[in-house]
Amino acid sequence: MKYTSFVAPLTLVLLVAWQFRKNWRAVVRPLLTLTIPAVLVALPWYLKTFWFTGNPVYPFVFGGVYWDAYRANAYAAPGTGIGLDIVALLRLPHDLTLGLKDASADGQMGPFFLIFLPVIVVYVLARVGKGVTRPYNALLFFALLQYLFWMAGAISSAGLWQTRLMLPAFVALCPVLAWLLEDLARFDHPQFSLRRFVGLVIVFALVLNLVAQLAGWLALAPHRYVLGDDGRDATLNRILGPHYTVMQDINDLLSEDAVVAFLYEPRSYYCERDCRPDSILDELGHLEYLYGDAAGIAATWRQQGVTHVLIFDAGYNFVVVTELASALPQDLTLMETLKTDWLEPVMAWETGYSLYVVPPVQ
Questions:
Q1: What is the mean pLDDT of residues 190-215?
Q2: pTM, full prediction
Q3: Distance from C-alpha of 275 to C-alpha of 316, rounded to nearest angstrom
């Protein structure tokens, strides 16, 4: 459940309340019809989160286990968004469509919304003030509030620039686009059908999108595993790359009671030891925040039973070069101090990983 989607049910409540604004007594039943199923659907997730963390909306509002002021600030990353840059704000629909700044890539949304956006705006503005209630008004209001909420997030934080968070708005716009396409028929001529032409363009774009997705899927060569040409290890190594190799080496090198803390590696897939990933890439900075320096961090690792540390050096170097403050410690020499004075090297991979042992107190 995405907490950022709370604006969707809130907008629906506003729409229902507006519909019955002239008779507030009649609004109770439709509001209950809307809110009760919504709460029942979401309740299992909130109860599960409360059971494990003590906070139904963890980690927001009430905080909870493993969460503090440092992590809240690092996760929110305030001030890293586009800010109040007028040109950037005007480019938002374009950049959103192309996924140019997505914090996480979740697939392509296609060109239709961007292509039809000017048409929708012109179509709506041409009918403003005519006193006619259009069936798409509620859908457009819903999509607009979603977009404004998303835009506010993109202004304040780079982490909230995620196209997928706009999915409710795209769903609401689909019927509007379908209605608009159907209404184009009134511009048809015996020699040329605008609606049919636009329909052909849409079909062509859908085919291109399907081809692009199919090409991306075939690049993973899933048929090689299905046909028996590749085994499990070869398939996982091809898809997960160096990460899978490192996990297998850890499984082979370390004893079953080993505890491995990760730095700048958020994945622990296929690690068969007690591996603790750096889920939001803030682990080193958070350790510095809690324990002060390399000596305090090493002592804490020993106290927690951590026997080894896996560092994704390539990831750390990328964070340093890009100056991603939310993922960096205040002391930029902290990593080197840990490696030199408090850890002992075990193995290094050419793919940018290195494994260290946490030695006992001398």
A1: 88
A2: 0.80
A3: 18
